[in-house]
Amino acid sequence: MRTHGSCHPLAVAKVRAHAAALKIPVSFGFITPPVLETARDALFRILEEHPGARLTFDLSGGPKDLCMAFFHLSLWVGAKTRYTLPGPGGMEEQAEFGVPGIPVAAVVANRNYLLVLESLARRPEKAMEDPVTSLSRSYLYNQVAAYYVPKRTRGVKRGAAQPGTAGSSEPRTAVQYELTQGTFSNILRTMTAGGLIEECHSRGTDRKRMQYRITAAGSLALRLAQIQSGQPRVT
Does domain 104-229 have CATH number 1.10.10.10? Predict the structure, then answer.
């Protein structure tokens, strides 16, 4: 299912050809002012008639207000949003807007996400050292386990209590929760599905030797999360 921001004959022909190649039906509708409300209602009809449809918005042509309306709606439904830019030698290059799979607010609220992203975003201390592009699952596990904070503490195992802050007037102890391998797998699976990190593995690699690296979306989410939480930038 594809929704286009233009009724130009060439754009219509491209959509028809694309639909024919995929062997799916195609239909067209007209968007009239007020643009946002009309585009929204058209989207509602598509979702009602085709539940579970994968949506793609092409913003390469058409009026500015229509493109902006579709871009706004695409963020709500997690659709792929494509656009075309002039390339070298007059050739067009297509690109995609990356819709956040995990909101920055969720990254800020989940210290475990931040620990994984911070570990993957670190750069070598010396200029002559090669940057590390990926880290092993076991290394990331150790980084998160040392500071693990569960979203729900009920039913979570507790480890040995850690001493309180040095110089504190009260002998407080900090509760240390145990990070299980299953819970850590869920953290990595959620972050991978959300596009913040990606797996880099070869065939036959077992789970503990799996390598991960941060994505462009993950780097953006980390920097925004650091700004929102007032944390220093990881370099």
Answer: yes
Instruction: Please list, in sequence order, all residues whose beta carbon lies within 8 angstroms of the beta carbon of residue 19, skipping any fewer than 6 positions away.
Output: 2, 25, 26
The 3 state secondary structure assigned to 50-70 is: CCCCCCEEECCCCCHHHHHHH
**pLDDT at residue 153 greater than cutoff 90:** no
User: Cα(103)–Cα(77) distance, rounded to whole angstroms?
Assistant: 14
Which pLDDT score, from 0 to 100, does residue 53 have? 83
Domain locations in the chain as residue ranges: 2-97, 104-229
